Amino acid sequence: MSIMQNRLEDLQIQLKNIIFYTEKNTNFMPMPTIYQEKGYRFFFYAGDRHEPAHVHVEKGEKDGKVWLEPEVKAKYLNDFKAQERKEIMRIINENVELLKTRWYEFFQQ
């Protein structure tokens, strides 16, 4: 599967989840920021609850998704240069417990 197909699939799932949760939840927060460092914004979509714990990352027009469980692993890091990818993974690995805690607190699992 190409990067674009993979990203399109993720966006379609997120859109379905956003529509569902906005209809069901009046306190909807579509993309809570859970951590920021060196210009990178780490967040998740409120509709991501049915996926394994993960974070999305963005900086400017660049974006990515990194699984936190069962292991820290990038699903995609679109348009980030190799050094930025390395930096993102370092930041996530150094803060993985905080990121997982915020995930489970938000989704109350």
Walk me through the structure.
The protein is of the alpha+beta class and 109 residues long. It has one domain (3-107). Helices cover 43% and strands 25% of the residues. The protein has helices spanning 3-24, 82-94, 96-107; strands at 33-37, 40-43, 54-59, 62-67, 73-78. The longest helix is centred in the N-terminal third of the chain and has 22 residues, at 3-24. The radius of gyration is 14 Å and the shape is globular. Residues 19-24 have low confidence and may be disordered.
Question: Which descriptors apply to this entry?
Answer:
109 residues, alpha+beta, 5-stranded antiparallel β-sheet, 3 helices, 43% helix, globular
Please give the count of helices: 3
End-to-end separation: 31 Å
Task: Tell me the structural class.
Answer: alpha+beta
Rg over C-alpha atoms, rounded to the nearest angstrom: 14 Å
Assembly state of the chains shown: single chain
Shape: globular
Beta strand count: 5
**Whole-number total of structural domains:** 1
Concise description?
Helices cover about 45% and strands about 25% of the residues. The protein is of the alpha+beta class. It has one domain (about 5-105).
Write the topology of this structure:
Elements (H helix, E strand, L loop, with lengths): L2 H22 L8 E5 L2 E4 L10 E6 L2 E6 L5 E6 L3 H13 L1 H12 L2
Antiparallel strand pairs: 1-2, 2-3, 3-4, 4-5
